[in-house]
Amino acid sequence: MSRRWHFNPYHQRIDEALEKTPTPPQADTEWELFEVFVRERRGDHPVHVGSLHAPDHEMALVLAKEQYLRRGRGVQLWVAPARCIAATPIEDADIFTHATDKSYREAYGYKVAQTVRKIRRKQKSQETEEPCVT
Amino acid sequence: MTVQERYEEAYNDPYYEEKLAEFEARIARGEKIEPDDWMPPEYRRQLIRLIQQHANSELIGALPEGTWIPYAPTFKRKMALVAKVQDEVGHAQLLYRAAETLGKPREQMVEELLSGESKWSNVFAYPAETWADVAIIAWLIDAAAIINQTIMATGSYAPYCRALKRIIYEESFHIKHGYEMIVTMVAGTKRQRDMVQDALNRWWEPIMMFFGPPDKLSVHTRTLQRWGVKPKTNDEQRQEFLSKYVPQIWDLGLEIPDPNLRYDETLGRWVYTEPDWNKFFRVINGNGPMSKERIAVRRLAYEEGRWVREALEALAKRVLTQPEPTGIVA
Q1: Residue B115 to residue A91, Cβ atoms within 8 A
Q2: Which pLDDT tens digit goes with each residue over B70-121?
């Protein structure tokens, strides 16, 4: 590799860097994984936005601000070590499905439109009363 | 687990066929794959390669424009360039994180980039010679990237899709900023218009190569498409780019330096001079005009940033002996 002299010290350093063999990154610099949550406005839930590695919780907040609040809105940042989070196994998603029909627990499980129409029809026609059984 | 170990485990697994069928059924239903899900080793390998190269491209992509920050013509342009470069580096970090969820360590990816072993997009191996180059890059290359990313975001691997959504949202200003720069110069003096046309003439071939060579029509390509690794082929993505941006380029009165470029009604697609794919492979293998300098700049940054990593490492070691922080909320 030919050595030239540059006026610009930045270009000089680039040339030197080109000639040096890259030092392999040190092993074991794997920092702890933190999960990041952003509260967009007061009153909102903190929402999970991603994860990052950091040496401690304070640096995790600094790095999270850089990565996740460089853009957009936020009033608060949370970080939690990923090892503190317990989770159900993803392959066991069926533990959340119901064994029987539990629509009585939901608003859509109650259908009244047909019965209301029946009431209106009755009022119009002034019929004698019949028991209404549902 | 090494790559070899994963393949061996899969082929020795008596339930492999069953797991594969369930995996493919999940994707066919349009469901995403999370890191803890079972996946075929080939799926994992291809995704790592793809995401790592994308991350490398974001990091290297910051460099052609980064060199222009001190030379931007106005303060607003300077600030927009700084923000864009900052975004690209942030995107690289998001993507390396996504690749980590598939089991590849960050340190290995850093080493592979610095040694030149790992690849990145061909377009960043060329120099930004004039200010008009910066504008063409910000407009057309970010446009090509957004088309690619929007397509890849429909893929099956959830951490990559989530990273892409964030990236696409942040990149919306890049392309607008690029287009504004182009429009400003085209509406300006003849010298400015000529500079833009000259930049387009030099950048058109690399842009046409951006999406990569036509995919081999193989079982392998079809499998990757079925698995949601590559929802559309390189040619299909290139066609989308041409349909969206060639009319816009012509609308500004600019000429595209390919006399064969036109939309063929009978074939229902754009026809063009096929790029020289041997040249493309030479460039991505490290022989582009700026390939070596890009890597040298990354090595320089890595060496000059060593003291920061060492300080944080000392912090991490010290923290291990200290008590946990107390919770902040109920």
Answers
A1: no
A2: 999 999 999 999 999 999 999 999 999 999 999 999 989 999 999 999 999 9
Label residue B77 exposed, middle or buried (CB < 10 Å: 0-12, 13-18, 19+): buried
Nearest to A18 among B94, B292, B328 (CB): B292
A50–B166 C-beta distance less than 8 A = yes
Q: How many domains does chain B have?
A: 1
Q: Is residue A112 part of a domain?
A: no
Please judge whether B162 and A71 are an interchain contact, meaning their C-beta atoms are less than 8 angstroms apart.
Answer: no
Cα angle B104-B107-B111, degrees, rounded to a multiple of 5: 105
In a domain, B325, yes or no: no
Side-chain-side CA neighbours of residue B276 (13 Å): 5
Question: Does residue B324 form part of some domain?
Answer: no
Total tally of structural domains belonging to chain A: 1
Classify residue A32: in a domain, yes or no.
yes
Whether residues B297 and A67 touch (CB distance < 8 A) is answered with: no
- Chain A partners of B107 at a C-beta cutoff of 8 Å? 25-27, 29-30
Lookup result for tokens 């063009």: B272
Kindly report whether the global pTM for this prediction surpasses the value 0.80.
yes
The count of C-alpha atoms lying within 13 angstroms of the C-alpha of B266, restricted to the half-sphere facing its C-beta, is 0
> What pLDDT, on a 0 to 100 scale, did the predictor assign at position B270?
97
Read off the tokens for A19: 């000639």
Q: Domain residues for A59? A: 28-84
Residue B328: inside a domain: no
| pLDDT digits 0-9 by tens, B262-312 | 999 999 999 999 999 999 999 999 999 999 999 999 998 888 888 888 888
Numbered residues of chain B with Cβ closer than 8 Å to any chain A Cβ: 34, 36-38, 86-87, 90, 93-94, 97, 105-107, 110-111, 114-115, 162-163, 166, 169-170, 292-293, 295-297, 299-300, 302-303, 309, 312-313, 315-316, 319, 325, 328
The span from the CA of B175 to the CA of B146, in Å, is 9
Please give, rounded to a whole number of angstroms, the shortest distance from the CA of B88 to a CA of chain A. Answer: 11
Closest in A14, A24, A51 to B296, CB measured: A14
Interface confidence, given as ipTM, is 0.87
Residue A49 backbone phi and psi in degrees, to 5: -120, -15
